Amino acid sequence: MKNYYEILGVQKTASKDEIKKAFRKLATKYHPDKKTGDEAKFKEISEAYSTLSDDKKRAEYDTYGRSYAGGGPQQGQQQWGGFQQGGFGGVEFDINDIFENFGDFFGGGHGNGRRSARGNDVSVDIELTFKEAIFGAKRTLKLTKNNSCTTCKGSGAKQGTEMTTCTTCNGNGKIRENRQSILGQFATVRECSVCHGSGKIPKETCPDCKGAGVRRSEEEIEINIPAGIEPGEMIRMTGRGEGVKGGTSGDLYVKIHVQRHKNIHRTGSNLESVLNVKLTDALLGAVYGVETLDGVVDIKIPEGVKHGEILRIKNKGVPTGGSSRGDFHVKIIIDIPQRLSRSSRKLVEELRKEGI
User: Fold this and answer.
1) Does the predicted model carry a pTM greater than 0.70?
2) How far apart are CA 281 and CA 273, in angstroms?
3) What is the C-alpha separation between 255 and 234, in angstroms, rounded?
C-alpha cells in the first residue's frame, strides 16, 4: 500500500500549504522534461497530491488507506476475495473480480466495477519576465487538443435522440471471455469497445463529432500566474487537459521558465542588487538612486560605509501574501580609483599622514 505522506515527504499533520510546497518541489525535480525527470515518480507524486490536496479524499485515505473515489466494495462481495470457490482444481474463477475488488478497496472502483474514463494530461511551457514572476501575471494560451464536444456534451449522441441497449455487450458494458489454463478456466472481462462501458448506445450519433464525444479544436485558456512563482514550478489546472467520451478531462500542467534580470536577482523572498559607490561618497556619505522592480528608489549611503556591506530597502522584495513583501538588499561595492591626479594624490598623502 502506497504511503502518500512518505511519497511527498511530509508529516500526516501537514497543512495544505505544506503539501502544496512539497508537491511543487518534487514535481520540479521529477518532471519528465528535466534531466532529473522520472515519469513514473512524477505520476506517483501527482497521484499523492491529488488525494492529499482534496479534503474529502484525504479524510477517506486517512481512514481507509486511500480515497474510495465515491464507492466501496459491492454488497455481498468479499473485500479481498475474487474466487467464486476456494482452491484451483479446475474450478472456474473470474480473475477480473480479483482486480476489481482490489480496485474498490484502494479507491479505483465505483461499486458497479466500471471505471470512469479519463482524458490525457497536457503539459506546456511558459516563459515569464523576471518582473512577471515576482508580481504575478495573466497569460492566455491557445491549445489545439481533443475537447469534449459542446453539441452532445461528450455523450456522442444526437440531441434529443433515445439511447438503446448496446447489442454487443447486451447492456452490461463489459465483454466476458473464457480462457483455459493449467490452473483452470479463467474468465476475463474487458470494457465494451462499442458503448465504452456505458451499456447504452444512441439511436443517432452526434452530427458534429460523429459519435466520438470529442472534437479536436482550439481552446483559449486563461492562466493566472501567482506572485512569487519560481523557475521550474508547475501550475496544475484540473480538467483542462484532453477530453474523452463519457469521462472526465485530463489535467493541464504549466511549467514556468523565468528570464534573468540584468541587475537584480532573487534569494527567497528578498531581491538583491549591487551598487557601485565612489570612494569619496563612501567616506563622506551620499544619496544614490537604486533600480528596483518598483522603479528607482533613493537610498542613503552612510558615512564610512564598508565594502560589501548590505543596505536594506524595506518592503520592496517578493510579495509573500496580502500586502506583505520581502526586502530589497543593496550590496555596496566601493570603487577604488586606478589612477590619481597629482592633486588627488597629494590629498590622499595628507590623509595618510593623519592616519586615515
Assistant:
1) no
2) 19
3) 5
